[in-house]
Amino acid sequence: MCYNSYPKTGSWKEDKDCCSWDGVECDNATRHVIGLDLSCSWLNGSIHSNSSLFLLRHLRSLNLAGNFFNYSLIPSEFGNFKTLTHLNLSFSYFSGKIPYEISQLSSLVSLDLSYNWLVIKTPVWKRVVDNLTLLRELLLDNTNMSSIRPNSLMNLSSSLTTLSLHYCDLRGKLENNILCLPSIQTLDLGFNFNLEGSLPNSNCNSSSYLKFLDLSGIRFSGELPDSISSLKSLKHLNLYSCNFTGSIPTSLGSLTQITHLILYFNNFTGPIPISLRNLTQITYLDLGFNSFRGLLPLSLLNLPNLSTLYLDHNQHVGPLPSHVSGLNLITLYLSSNFLNGTLPSWLFSLPSLETLSLGDNEFIGEIGEFKYNSLYHLDLGYNKLQGSIPKSISRLVNLTYLSLSSNKFSTMLEFEMFSKLKNLQYLDFSHNLLSIKNVTFTLPNLRQLNLSSSNISEFPIFLKTATNLTSLDLSNNRIYGQVPRWLGDVGRDTLRSLDLSHNFLTSIDKIPWKNLQFVDLRANLLRGPFPTLNFLNLQYFFVSNNSFTGEIPSLICNASSLEVLDLSHNSLSGMIPKCLANFSALLVLDLRMNNLSGTIPTTFAKGNNFRNINLNGNQLEGQLPRSLANCGNLEVLDLGNNKINGTFPYWLESFLKLRVLVLRSNRFEGQIGNPKTKFPFPNLRIIDISNNQFNGSLPRKYFKCLKAMTNVDESEVRLKYVGDRYYQDSLNVMIKGSYMELVRIQTVFFTTIDFSNNRFIGEMPKILGRLKSLKGLNFSHNNLTGYIPSSFGNLTNLEWLDLSFNKLSGEIPMQLVELTWLEVLDLSHNQLTGRIPLGKQFNTFDNDSYMENSGLCGFPLSRTCNNETKQPTPSILQKEDNLEHENGFGWQAVLIGYGCGVIFGTLMGYLMFKFGKPKWIVRMVILEQHIMLRKLKNNAYRRGGRK
């Protein structure tokens, strides 16, 4: 706002004529003050009602913009300026309601109250509309107009040439004749995200005057109408994030006066029309974040005045042209497409180019030689570039951002070539197989350094001078030994993020940085007690998969801003600090696989934000604290492999978001009983209560209500998985006979029930056949009796079924042959009889699946069946086994997936596993996910200052 501010009143002297004062204009005849311009004059405080300002009754123009009035109210005395024609109070830190008296200034031609903290109510707005009939300019940007009906805009002065209501929280339906205000030249209704409507399909004569149109963020629908081409005088058009679909109309190319065209973040498809080559006056073109396809339109690169071009995040394919001429580009964004081929030399020979973003494409070959030093921002990451990095990169002395990450560079990288880049703030060479020559030089302005997965074996020496560093990522390398003490001086007061995970570090004396928010030391060789650490500002703390010993330090109670705490897979002992249950911001508490003892804290506060609590694999005892009922946002609760006792925690059934419940291998006992709520565990997809002492019948009414385990329409539901940017949940689960830790589940749906190794009796409920998304079902090692329900034939996604070590009788239902995904079947140690079904997956099971069932016969057993016994044929489910149809169960299927969407995340390790046939593969690859993380973390930075 203020490019040349200074205290104008500082030059005012009482012994001089006030008409000569800076900012004062007087009438030549009467010497009355008629104009006062104190904009950007360092004024502060509030304007009192008795201010001498209000004595200037002859004022025609008053400009107080760009000052600091301390969020005070606009005095009603402004209504005394009856002759005022121009009033500008913008950017002046006023707040509250716009006074009614402003609407009495009937001589106003220009009114600018924008970018304050003001509210205009309906009575005042109606008076503005009715009384200020001479208005030509009305600017109320950033004013709360949520109570104003959009259709009232059409009643404004017919003389209005400028109407700017940017970010005013206008709500409702926008009239489609809004472009027909008779004299309008500038119309800005952008960033009113609760407005909806449609652009007019017909032309109106007045629209030919329109030069500036900003409708960004309004919820339109359908295609951009051809009528937009009637705005022949248009110079600026902003339709950012307007929900438009379909193709850009070719008639848009007839707007030959346009200089700024912004269509990014819509749903446009198809090729970019060739008619845009007619926009010869255009300087700024943004078509990014759409779904444009096809070859890159070469005609856009030939527009003579184009300086800024965004085509990023589309689906363009093919190579860049080998030759272009006459380009005056300053900014070029082509990132996140499917462009391929080599990088043409002209890219590195544009004398005015300041920003070049080609990341996340499929370019190959080497980087060309840089001829000019104009670049400030260079992003070539996430491609397939190889060879050596040209030494001419040292010419780019203005460079502030450099990313060459995730390519195939494999040569010796001499950091010394960057020694001249003194303005460099962001440097990313991650995910390359470089050999780095460690040399000393200075990068005094370096803020972020990412050398993750870069094959380095020691800390870069040049870091010693990076005193202003805010982010350091050296993860996934071969750094061995102790963290050098000098590292503590790197960004001592500025470092916010430190990632040294997945190395071979053996010790770190202390973590001295004062303002750390993110610390990741996962998967090293660290041992002994926790290093000294300032927890005050910490939000994310990861030290899993090390060998830390001793108690969790009491200083962690200072970390009241913690969102994720992962201390899993260490050798920590002692009790869980009670304060951890009181943190209001904590989303994830992962303390699994330690030697913690005592009881679970009983002080979980109301209104907490826990999404994941994982205490698996400790020595915890006692009963579950009822204060856990305050964790209503829980999605994952894993308390397996402890010594917890008590009865089934039915009071968890009301948790609407709970997806994973693991109580296995504890000392729970008693009957599960019936639900206490109408719809218990509505989102539960994994339940494991195995290896306890539960008894009684299986909980049929609970099974009846598990709606997230019912049938899923996989064609209509987007895949979900656990975790986000920094953390992803893992789960210890019995899969097909093997106890495994799943770190992330991707490309599959994962739903299991494991009630094994308890004391359940009675029959298996037929209602289980409704749970069609089940992958695994384990009732083994109980005292179940009766038949195997033929309704199990409906579990068409089932991959493992274990009913062994029970007292089941009768024949194996022929309907189970239809379980074509079944890979592991264990019916051993029961009292089953009759012929074993044949066909499909049943032809792959061996003797172990049926052993110790004296009445079974047929393949694969050596015991043949009586000749009179006929082989049953598959048929419809037996009528007596038809599922009960009871009121209260009409759920539509929903995909929940094993996931909780906790925190924004990075996966540091994938566990690959596969069993039997058909193959079901869960891919878990460290490098691939690490690359995915970098794309997320760098995306906003790459985008630069785009608005």
Automatic annotation (TrEMBL):
Source organism phylogeny: Eukaryota, Viridiplantae, Streptophyta, Embryophyta, Tracheophyta
Gene3D superfamilies, per the entry: Ribonuclease Inhibitor
Cellular localization per UniProt: Cell membrane
Protein name per UniProt: Leucine-rich repeat-containing N-terminal plant-type domain-containing protein
Top-level taxonomic group: Eukaryota
Bilayer topology: Single-pass type I membrane protein
UniProt keyword tRNA processing present: no
Entry's transmembrane regions: 889-913
Alphabetic keyword roster: Cell membrane, Glycoprotein, Leucine-rich repeat, Membrane, Receptor, Repeat, Signal, Transmembrane, Transmembrane helix
Main location group: membrane
Keyword Cell cycle: no
Gene Ontology CC annotations of this record: plasma membrane
Annotated family: Belongs to the RLP family.
